[in-house]
Design brief:
RNA-binding; alpha/beta; Tyrosyl-Transfer RNA Synthetase; 47% helix; 6-stranded mixed β-sheet; 13 strands; Structural Genomics Hypothetical 15.5 Kd Protein In mrcA-pckA Intergenic Region, Chain A; Rossmann fold
Length: 399
Amino acid sequence: MLEEALREINRGSAEVIDSERIEKLLTAYFQEGKTYTVKAGFDPTAPDLHLGHTVLLQKLATFQKYGARVQFLIGDFTATIGDPTGKSATRKVLTPDDIKKNISSYTTQAFKILDESKTDIVYNNDWLEPLGANGMLELASTLTVARMLERDDFSKRYASNTPIAVSEFMYPLLQGYDSVHLKSDIEIGGTDQKFNLLMGRQLQKVYEVQKQQAVLMMPILEGLDGVQKMSKSLNNYIGVTDEPNDMFGKVLSVSDELMWRFYELLSTESLENIESLKSGVADGTLHPKKVKESLALEITTRFHSEEKANFAKAEFDKVHSKSQIPTEIEEYNCDGEVWIAKALVDCKIEPSTSQARRDIKQGAVKIDQVKISDEQLQLSSGEYILQVGKRKFAKLKVN
RNA sequence: GGUGAGAUAGUCAAGUGGCCAACGACGGCAGACUGUAAAUCUGCUCCCUAUGGGUUCAGAGGUUCGACUCCUCUUCUCACCA
């Protein structure tokens, strides 16, 4: 039991600091039913979560399964400083109202994964604000500038003469102080947070609250391209609020290699099962697509429902395997004869008539499942199913 | 503060008076092949009902029949010196 728990907890992790501590906490839980706390900090700036964010959430859920109380920390105070990401210069200041809105959308999404009854939502403004100037100075005195500059990001910026605001130095300190206040037993975060996470350990020692927290770091999830990290700005993400059809399709479009990564970091499938899936694919008894399909089903079910996931799968098969028309298509109307290129633009499946012409020339455009080649084609009155490529559809009614 | 280099399409990056809507690479889209996977091959990739027209090469002026290319100023970036 203990062994299995440890394996699940370490699963996919990039680095663990003080794993003995984790083992002790778990042992205490299994033997005496003692709970412990796991802290994770969240920035209230990004209300749209994608699967990259859920890696952490799922790790927290795993901890909950093994006796942890999760300290779901909202960095409402620290959000006003801005974590030194190097490009944070233009960070806008959030109003309390924005923050409140972001948080509620954040938590409803998060509780699709986390057990609400084992989660404490805490706001660091509650203790950082009363800390005051004295407290801040005391906190700042625990650390030297040299030590601060050890942080990779800082040293790089310092070396390249990129400005570093003194307030940015406070960020890791404050995040570390959160751990002091909360007396966290374990803190988890992404590998990019290493410095900040370690700061928690250091400060807990200085303030002599208790034993130092253990730290578990999760890798950054790759996006759909399999190379760069999943992020909204790179448009390689699967959002947790994506439509079931999109979500299913996106998961299915990841490469076989990346699929295993997703399995490790996102699936709740046990490690044994994943191993057997892997060997099944390796010796040819299992088709990789089947394996990917069940992953897509699992993920879609998690954020929507089983029913919707199954529907998305059926829809997917219909459109792609049997190349039929999807059940639901956007509908558009227009009057009089329409030039095909214009119609495609009006239906928002082409960005410009130039692009539409090119696609027609290349045979990417179909009307009612039939490829067309005449770029001068006029559509007279009637109903048409327009299609560009494999995935863009529209229904057009010409009056 | 001084000196020098630079700013080109989504990104990187050629182009140094007409052959430039601008080489190439990446990305993206489409086609073939497939498992809408990957890999590979091919085509396309500013806009406009188009063998043509329009608007582009940081911004504003100027020289010229003609400028992304030359000149002036402005803004911003980078390097070296102080």
